[in-house]
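Researcher: I'd like a structural prediction for the single chain below. Treat it as a standalone chain; there are no partners to consider.
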Amino acid sequence: MAIGEILLLVFVFVIAGFLGVELISKVPSQLHTPLMSGTNAISGITIVGAIAATAVALHTEGMLSNILGFVAIVLATINVIGGYLVTDRMLGMFKKKGDDKK
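Model: Treating it as a single chain, here is the predicted structure.
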């Protein structure tokens, strides 16, 4: 991979980060729970992509690609589980106190 390609990828990553911060900061608090649910669905797709990329790397690349693929799968899984836990906790805040006993 050439230096120009790496710089382009870093540039896209930084711009995506700034765009994400701007978008999330403008979301009203009432929409955070539905937004979190949508983000969990996207993270689930990320797990599928990480598994597919790791499967390809197992047959073509060296050990570093295998390790990075495994780390990608683990981090994406942690992200999905954490997102669902946060969403469940946020939805629990809207329940009435007597509803927990049912």
